[in-house]
Amino acid sequence: MKTKIAMPLRGSCFCSFGILYFFLNCFIFPTASYTLKDCRVTQNRQAICQNNNLKLFPKDIPASVTSIDLSGNKISKLSKTDLKDLPNLLRLQVTRNRISKIESSTFVVQISLKVLMLNNNRLCKLQEGMFDGLVNLIELYLASNQIQTVAPASFKSLSKLKILDLGHNKLRHLTNIFLQHTPHLQNLYIPANKMSTFHSWELSNKSTELVALDFSQNEIMYFRLTAGIFPKLKTLYLEDGITNGIVWEVNDTSYLSSVVRLDISGVRNSIHGLQEVLETFKSSSSMRHLQLNNINNNLQVLINVSCKIPKLSSFEIRNNGIKCITSDMLHLCTYLKILDLGMNEITHISENSFQSLRQLNTLVMKSNCLTSVPNAVRKSKISKLDLSCNNINVLGCDDFANMIHLRDLYLNNNPLLALNDCVFKDLFNLNKLMLQNSSIDQLNGAFKKNTPNLKTLSLLNNKLTFLDHGEFKALNSLQTLTLKWNKLEKLNDGTFFGLASLTNLNLESNQITEITNATFGDLKALKTLNLQSNQIKYASVEPIPFPPFAEFSQLDTLFISAQSRPHKWSNFPQNFLQGLTNLSILYMDGNHLTSVHPHTFNYTPNLNVLHLSKNFFFLTDIPDNLFSPIQKLKSLYISMTNLRSLDFLLHANLTELELLQVGYNIFSLIRKPVMLSLPALTDLDMQGNSFTCNCDNAWFLQWVITNQQTQVFNAYNFECSYPPNLKGRKLLQIDVRSCTVDTDFICFISTACAVIMTLAVSFTHHFLQWHLVYAYYLMLAFLYNSKNKDKRAHLYDAFVSYNANDEGWVLGELLPKLEDEQGWRLCLHHRDFQPGKPIMENITDAIYGSRKTICVVSRDYLESEWCSREIQVASFHLFDEQKDVLILVFLEDIPMQQLSPYYRMRRLLKRQTYLSWSRADAHPNLFWEKLRQALETQEHPMGEHILLTVEDGPPGERPDQ
Predict the structure, then answer these.
(1) What CATH code is carried by the domain that includes residue 813?
(2) 8 A C-beta contact, residue 93 and residue 66
(3) pLDDT tens digit sequence for 681-724
(4) Is the pLDDT score of 20 beyond 50?
(5) Number of separate domains in the chain
(6) Burial code of 423-458, b = ≥16 C-beta within 10 A, e = fewer?
(7) pLDDT on residue 426
(8) Does residue 314 form part of some domain?
(9) Which of 148, 462, 490, 553 is packed most tightly, with the most Cβ within 10 A?
C-alpha cells in the first residue's frame, strides 16, 4: 500500500469533518489515471515499458492501449490477472525478461491479440492452456528460451497462426503438434535446436500451407521427405546443419518443386550428401536463390552442380576462402543475375571471369582483398557493383570505362585518399555512389563534369578540408549529399553551385565557422539541412544584412545544434532564420545560448517541432512573446536549460502544443494557469526536476493524477526538494487533501443548505406565519411606544378598526350613536388619517393617540391584512399599557377556532370586555349603553376587577369554555 505523507499547510488550518473527508477522497483521488508509474503511452496507443527493471506486470496500463512493449525487464511470471483488463491488445512484446511460467488462461481476454513476442526468456515447457484465448493470434515468437517439450494441446487455440518461431531452444524431435492445431501456418522457424532428423510424417501427414521452413543449425543427419506436404513451400533453410554421412531421402523431386530460395551453407566434409541435395533441384523450374556459404572443400564441384539449376538467378558464395576467380569457375552460371562473392579472400579476378554471365546485373565483392578495380567488371553490363571493404587505394580513369549501365556503386571503406576528374567519366547513369570511410582529402573535380544522373552521394567520414567553387556543378540530379565527419572549415560562395535538385544536405560534424546566403544560393529545393556540431558563431544578436537562409523557402528541417564556440559568440542574430517560411522542424539544442531574441521565430510561422534543450537560459528569462509567432507548434523540447519558471508559456498561446519536454531544469512550482494554457497537451516530460511539496503545488499534483488527457512521463519518480523534512520523498506520495477544497463538494454542501433552508422557510410560512406576523407587529409597537412614551397625548376617545365591507354599519349605526348622541370623539381611518404618511405610522399614531380602540370584528375583518395589523398593534397597546384599552364588538357569531391565528390574543380575550351586535336585536339600547359604559370605564390595571361585563367570551363560545 502506498504511503501518504501529509503536506505542510501554508496559512490557516482547514477544518475537515467526516463528510468532507469522504467527498475529497471520491473527487480528488479517483481510481482512473492517465499518468503511469512505469510506462508511457504514445499517441498511437502504445505502452512503452521497456528497460525499467520491472519484476511484475504493470497494473496501471489503460485498457485502451493496443500495443505493449515490456522488453528488457525482470518479469519472471505471467499470471491470469495480469492481462484481464486489457481486451484491446493487438501486440504484446515481453522479450528479454525472465519468464519461466505462464499460467493457464493468462490470455483468455486477449481475443484481439495478433502478435505475441516471448523471445529471450526462460520457458522450459509449453503447457496445455498456456495460449488459450488467442483465437486471432497470427504471429508467435518463442525463440531463445529453454523449451524442451511441447504439450500436445498447447497450440489448440491458435487456429489462425501464420508465423511460429521456436529457434534457439532445446527441442529434439518434430511432432505434429506444430501443425495439428495450426492449419494455416505459413512460416515455421526451428533453427538452432537439438534436432538430428527431419521426417515429414512427424511434422504432418497431409498437405500444409507452409511457405517458409527454417531448419538451420540443427546438424541434421537424416532428411526424409516421403510425401508432398509442402506444395507451397518457397523458402527452405538448412544452413550449417548437414554433417558427414547425411541421408537425403526425397522420394519425389516434385515434393520441393515450389522452393524458390534454398540455403544449404555450412557443409563440412560430405560432398556426396550435398550433391544429392542439389540434384533434387536440378530440374526445378522455381529455384531462383541459392546460398552456398562456408563450404570450403570441393566448392567448384558444388558450383557446377548448382549452376545447372535452370532458373537460378541469385547465387551467394560467401565466406568460402576463395582467393582467385578464374574464367572457368562460373562459366556454367549463364542465367545468374545476382552474384555475391563477399567475405572471401579474393586478390585476383581474371579478365574474362564474368564473360559468360550475360544476364548479370548485381555483383557483390564486399570484404575481400582487392587492391584495384578488377578489369573483369568492365566487360559486364552490371547495374550494381559492391567493392566496399577492400584495399583499393587508387582509382584510375579506365577503371569504370564503358560501364554505362552501372547505377549503384559501393566503394566505401577503401583507402582511396584522393579522386581524380576522370574516374567516373563513363558513369552516365550512375544513381548512387558510396565513398564513405575512405580517407579522401581531395575531390579534384571528380564531380564537375561527370555523373549527371547521380541522386545519392555519400562522402561521410573522409578528410575533406576544402571544397572548390562549383565542386558539384555536374550533379544536376543529386538529391542527397552527405559530407558528415569531414574537416571542412569554410564553405566558399558557389560551393554548391548546380545542385538545383538537392533536397538533403548533411554537413554535420565539420569545422564550419561561418555560413552566408551566397554559400547556399543554388539550393532552392533543399528540404533538410544538417549543420549540427560545427563552430558557427556570431558576435551579437543584432540583425545581419544577408541572412544565410533567405532563399530557403522550401526547407522543412534544419539542424543547427551543438555549435562549439566561445561563450561571447553563443547567440544567433535575431534574423538568423529569415526566409524559412515553411520550416517545420528546428534543432537548436546544445548551443550554450544565453538568450533568444523575441523576434527569432518571426520568420518561421509553420514551425511544428522545436528543440531548445541544453542551453543556458537561466542567465536571462525567456521573453514572454518568444513563441507567439509559432502558434502551430506541436512539440517543444526545452530540457536542461536551467529554467526557473514555466510562466513564459502563459503568453505563448501554444494552443496546438501536444508534447512538452522541460526535464532537468530548476523550477519547482507549476502554476495552474500554465497547464490550462496548453489545451491540446498530451505528453509532458518533467523528469529530473525537484518540486516544492506544499500547498503551492497541490493543484499540479492533483492534475497529474486525475487528468485524462495529458500523460506526465515518469511522474511517480518526481521528488521533493522543499520543505527540508520532505526532501527526497516522492511527489505523488504527498497527501494534498488538507490543501484542496473540492468545488463539487462545495456545490453539494451549498445545494444541501439551500434545500434545507427552503424547507425551513416553507414550514415556517405554512405553520408559523401568524406567529411571526404577530411578533413583527409587537416589535413595531414596542419601538413606537419607546420613541413616543413621554410626549404622547390622547386626541381621540376611541380609534375604530373595521373592514371596508363593514363600513355601512360603522357609518350608519356606530358613528351616529357615539359621536352625535353620546358626544364621543372617534378616529376613523378614511377621515382622520394624515394623507401621504405611511399607513403603518398612521395606524400606530391613531391607536396610541386614542384612549380606547374599538375593533369591529367580522369574518371579513379576520381575513383583512390591514385589519390584522391594526389589531396586532392594539393588542400590544393593551399589553404595554396593562390597562383595559381594547373593546371588541362582534358583528357576527364567530367560533373560537377561527380566532386561532391570534392565539395569544385569544387567551387574553377571555379576560376582556366583549360586545355582540348579533345578540343585541331584542335590546339594542342596552348594547349602546354598555358600549358607552365601556368607553367611560377608567383605564385601571388589567389585573383589577372590571366593573362592566357585556359578554364573558366571544360570540359562539359559552362563558365556561
Answers:
(1) 3.40.50.10140
(2) no
(3) 999 999 898 898 888 888 898 898 888 889 898 888 888 988 88
(4) no
(5) 1
(6) bbbbbeebbbbbbbbbebbbbbbbbbebbeebbbbb
(7) 93
(8) no
(9) 462
Q: Is the Cβ–Cβ distance between 164 and 140 less than 8 Å?
A: yes
Burial 104-134 (b: 16+ CB within 10 A, else e): eebbbbbeebbbbbbbbbebeebbebbbbbb
202 vs 182: CA distance, rounded Å: 15
**SS3 state at 857:** strand
Three cell numbers written together for 415: 583507402
Look at the block and give the residue holding cell 544565453.
594
Give bridge partners of residue 48 from the DSSP assignment. 40, 69
Does residue 815 lie in a domain region?
yes
Backbone angles phi, psi at 371, to 5 degrees: -105, -5
Q: What is the DSSP string of 262-275?
A: EE-TT--S-HHHHH
Can you give the pLDDT at residue 955?
47
Q: Are 203 and 179 in contact (CB under 8 A)?
A: yes
Whose cell is 524458390? That residue is 260
Q: What is the 3-state secondary structure (H, E, C) of 644-668?
A: CCCHHHHHCCCCCCCEEECCCCCCC
Which of 116, 53, 61, 64 lies closest to 87, judged by CA? Answer: 64
The span from the CA of 511 to the CA of 483, in Å, is 12
Residues in the chain: 961
- Report which DSSP code applies to 627: T
Name every residue whose Cβ is closer than 8 Å to that of residue 263 and which is 6 or more positions away in sequence. Answer: 216, 236, 237, 238, 239, 290, 291, 293
Angle at 604 between CA 599 and CA 609, to 5 degrees: 110
Report in angstroms the alpha-carbon separations of 266 from 241, 273, 343, 358, 639: 7, 12, 14, 29, 52
Query: Residue 816 sits in which domain range?
Result: 770-936
Per-residue pLDDT tens over the stretch 858-908: 888 777 766 766 666 666 665 555 566 778 888 888 776 666 555 445 554
Check pLDDT > 80 for residue 456: yes
Would 811 be classed as within a structural domain?
yes
Q: Residue 562: which residues within 8 A CB-CB, separation 6 or more?
A: 532, 533, 589, 590, 591
Q: Residue 642 has which C-alpha cell?
A: 536551467
Q: Is the pLDDT of residue 19 over 60?
A: no
Quote the cell numbers at residue 300.
567448384
Provide the strand spans (E) within 251-394.
Answer: 261-263, 289-291, 314-316, 324-325, 338-340, 348-349, 362-364, 384-386
The contacts of residue 433 (CB under 8 Å, 6+ apart) are: 409, 411, 424, 451, 454, 456, 457, 458
Helix and strand tally (H, E) in the chain?
A: 17, 47
Secondary structure E strands in 914-953: 914-916
CA distance 824 to 797: 6
